[in-house]
Write a structure and sequence with these properties.
- The longest helix is centred in the middle third of the chain and has 52 residues, at 233-284.
- Helix 14 (463-476) links the parallel strand 8 and strand 9 (481-485).
- The chain is elongated.
- Helix 2 packs parallel to helix 6.
- The protein has 3 domains: 1-172 and 312-334, no CATH class; 173-286; 346-541, P-loop containing nucleotide triphosphate hydrolases (Rossmann fold), CATH 3.40.50.
- By secondary structure, the protein is α/β, with parallel strands linked by helices.
- The chain has helices at 6-11, 13-48, 69-72, 75-119, 121-137, 143-171, 173-182, 185-227, 233-284, 289-311, 313-330, 391-398, 438-442, 463-476, 493-508, 520-525, 537-541, and strands at residues 349-357, 365-366, 371-375, 379-384, 406-413, 424-430, 433-434, 445-448, 481-485, 512-516, 528-531, 535-536.
- Strands 3-1-5-6-7 form a 5-stranded antiparallel beta sheet, covered by helices on one side. The protein has a 5-stranded parallel beta sheet with strand order 8-9-10-4-11, with helices on both faces.
- The protein starts with 5 loop residues before the first helix and ends with a helix.
- Bound molecules: adenosine-5'-triphosphate.
- Adenosine-5'-triphosphate (ATP) binds next to helix 5 and helix 12.
């Protein structure tokens, strides 16, 4: 797995800016850490060793900090300034991280929602809609720890760590060698711990998922279980699952503590090796006290970012998985929805469906297949046919939401009684593409789906009530074309009669009303009836 998804950098502006700024702050932190270590070493050396203070101990690095004892009196405020600046840098880093994380999440959310909307209702209904909901509602939140915890440490591991190794090399080559040889052990041990614990993590995840799914199932089924007097039955099973979950969580915690301890031990040992060799050389006079102190202060700082990258590895895995899920949706090619031609004025002509066939998503059948109908302003057209024959699909095609795979939909001005040569036809959709401006076409249409959802506001309404509200809205919309999908399916007889009357009245006032229905009363009231059928595609092409 890559530490940074390149798509995040290429496609998401705030992510790119943030990564650049974080790298810059990493460099600044490296400089501050170095100055801080050298200053402390220079100030502590005379206290610890009664030998006269010389600037030679730090070599060329000594020029970075004050040299003489007199100058050192100004060292304390300088040290305080460096520490304050380091604190400020990490505060700024944290702030930027939160802001960038929130911006990236919000931008990805908007892009995913816009993409899902552009993919059309059938794509959403095919189960991908649920993926969009998961990614947009919770999944992308995992990106925040990725931005706030993991990326800054990664930036430090790739800026601070190499710079400090070079500094240590400038001070003492043997310590630099020890650090360079022991540093790779940190990622190696992290990988080993990861491999050993992978199975446990997977088991934990599975237990969590099973528990979540069963709990949801159980909550959804409580009314039924209660009605059957079986509500106590599943309690034992939930208890068992809860116990399994507790064990898995405790196991994961043990592993987390253990792996933390392994890394802690490893870095401590590495620093100890540096310290011990330095101690011997100090005694033998092979190294100055200042240099030894500076190296000892710098050594743990070298390991820290690499260790932290390991600690926050899970944040990275979850965040990148969330980004990956979002990009998987964004990478789905958009259907050719909408051309450059302006949408024709639907109030001025008849929508003519000629030989329209629409392949089902599995590509096996066409539903509808070979549909021909003329929906004129001032008429009510009923679309009838067996379940699954393609009535709703044809309405989607008329709304410009799903282009026909065969045949065409056009707008013809002039009446059916006119001679053909006098008619003016503009193709709206054909060969799998909508040829006119999608928004311009959609604005002229009021579409009421089979099961209207009015979102949270509609939750307190029954299905029939929701359908009435949606129909009222469509009737009052003043749009020239109305596409109604089984508008009377959930209505009582009185409401049904009212709806039929209003559909007739709207048609009489000049609207083009098209209704998919199984209701004989609606079919009776229609001026035009189209029976749609579905066919196997092999049968069609044969
Ligand atoms: N979301 C979907 N995913 C996969 N296939 C679909 C989807 N929606 C429709 N289909 C396919 O398209 C065909 C036509 O569906 P459509 O909803 O248009 O039928 P319908 O005539 O309106 O049926 P009903 O009378 O039951 O409402 C179905 O038989 C099915 O194969």
């Amino acid at each position: 797995m890559k530490p940074i998804d390149p798509r995040l950098v290429v496609r998401i502006g705030p992510a790119r800016r943030y990564i650049l700024v974080t790298a810059g702050l990493g460099l600044l932190t490296a400089l501050l850490v170095a100055v801080q270590a050298l200053l402390i070493a220079r100030m502590l050396a005379p206290v610890l060793a009664p030998t006269p203070l010389t600037g030679d101990g730090l070599g060329w690095l000594g020029t970075l900090v004050p040299t003489s004892a007199r100058e050192l009196s100004s060292g304390l405020p300088l040290l305080a300034g460096v520490i304050a600046l380091r604190t400020l840098t990490s505060w700024l880093q944290e702030r930027l991280a939160h802001r960038a994380g929130a911006q990236v999440i919000s931008e990805l959310r908007s892009q995913v929602v816009a993409h899902a909307a552009a993919m059309g209702p059938r794509w959403i209904a095919s189960g991908r809609g649920a993926d969009v909901v998961t990614v947009v509602s919770r999944g992308l939140d995992d990106l925040l720890p990725y931005f706030v915890r993991y990326l800054p440490q990664l930036a430090l591991a790739s800026t601070l760590t190499p710079i400090l190794i070079v500094l240590v090399l400038g001070l003492d080559w043997l310590s630099a060698l020890i650090v360079t040889l022991t540093l790779p052990l940190v990622p190696i041990f992290m990988i080993l711990v990861g491999l050993v614990t992978r199975e446990r993590s997977e088991k934990h995840l599975k237990a969590m998922q099973t528990l979540g799914a069963r709990t949801l199932d159980l909550i959804a089924g409580v009314p039924t279980l209660k009605a059957l007097g079986r509500e106590r039955g599943p309690a034992a099973r939930v208890r068992e699952l809860g116990e399994a979950h507790r064990k898995a969580t405790m196991g994961s915690l043990r592993v987390a503590f253990l792996s933390g301890m392994v890394l802690e031990l490893l870095t401590t040992l590495a620093v100890a090796i540096v310290a011990v060799t330095m101690g011997f050389r100090l005694v033998e006079g092979g190294i100055g006290i200042e240099t030894a102190l500076a190296v000892l202060i710098l050594a743990p700082e070298v390991y820290l970012p690499v260790r932290n990258v390991g600690t926050h590895f899970h944040a990275s895995a979850d965040g990148l998985a969330a980004a990956d899920a979002a990009f998987e949706i964004l990478d789905e090619p958009l259907p050719a929805m909408g051309g450059d031609a302006p949408a024709p004025d639907a109030a001025r002509g008849a929508i003519v469906v000629t030989g329209v066939g629409i392949a089902t998503p599995d590509g096996v059948r066409e539903a509808p297949s070979g549909a021909d109908v003329r929906c004129s302003p001032g008429t009510l057209t009923a679309i009838v046919g067996a379940n699954g024959s393609g009535k709703s699909t044809l309405l989607l095609a008329l709304a410009g939401l799903l282009p026909p795979t065969a045949g065409r939909i056009s707008l013809e001005t002039g009446s059916a009684a006119d001679d053909a040569p006098e008619r003016d036809a503009e193709v709206v959709a054909q060969d799998g593409a909508l040829l006119v401006d999608a928004d311009g076409w959609a604005k002229q249409i009021a579409w009421v789906p089979q099961r209207p959802d009015l979102g949270p506001a509609g939750r307190t309404l029954s299905l029939g009530q929701r359908q009435r509200v949606a129909l009222d809205r469509a009737f009052e919309s003043g749009r020239p074309v109305l596409l109604l999908d089984e508008p009377t399916a959930h209505l009582d007889p009185d409401s049904r009669d009212q709806i039929v009357e209003r559909m007739r009245a709207l048609a009489a006032s000049g609207a083009t009303v098209v209704v998919a229905t199984h209701e004989p009363d609606v079919v009776h009231a229609a001026d035009e009836v189209l029976t749609v059928e579905s066919r196997e595609i092999t049968e069609v092409s044969a």
